[in-house]
Design a protein that fits this description.
Length: 160
């Protein structure tokens, strides 16, 4: 028991020495980067509005059985995501693992309204084909989400 308490004190001491978790006058002691915050559109809390999208299996998914056609649709889907990412409209995307809710993937759109996001999902072949449907809702999250695309390129050996 005393050994665990001493270990806990040592860990807390290390965090304190590193300045982690310290708050002064209600503000974290991490240096604020005003230029970065402005570039990302962050509010005073480092947050911003997005539109969150869940892609779900659509009504025509089982009807499209031709492997070549499915491959073409998914190639268009990947190209569309790349284009939207390059334009700064798609902040984050990725597929879900196997699940019982028909969830296929997510998008986080860097747009202010659901109506703007609806126009963007309509450009995606998986949506226009009916293989998937998109459920859209406003989302308030860290403005730093916008740094994912530029940093992803630094850690990906291959492109889709």
């Amino acid at each position: 028991m005393q050994k665990n308490f001493l270990m806990l004190l040592a860990v807390v001491g290390l965090f304190t020495l590193a300045g982690l978790g310290q708050v002064k006058d209600g503000a974290p002691q991490t240096p604020f980067d005003e230029g970065l915050a402005k570039r990302l559109g962050a509010d005073d809390f480092g947050m911003k509005s997005y539109v969150f999208c869940i892609l779900k299996t659509g009504p025509k998914d089982t009807e499209i059985t031709d492997a070549k056609k499915r491959s073409e649709i998914f190639a268009g889907h990947m190209a569309n995501m790349k284009r939207l990412g390059d334009e700064g409209k798609l902040a984050l995307a990725g597929p879900f693992g196997k699940n019982d809710r028909a969830y296929r993937g997510i998008f986080i759109f860097n747009v202010a309204t659901v109506e703007e996001a609806e126009k963007l999902v309509e450009t995606d072949p998986v949506i226009s084909s009916g293989m998937m449907i998109a459920e859209l809702t406003p989302w308030y999250g860290s403005a730093a989400v916008l740094l994912v695309n530029e940093n992803h390129k630094k850690v990906a050996k291959k492109d889709f």
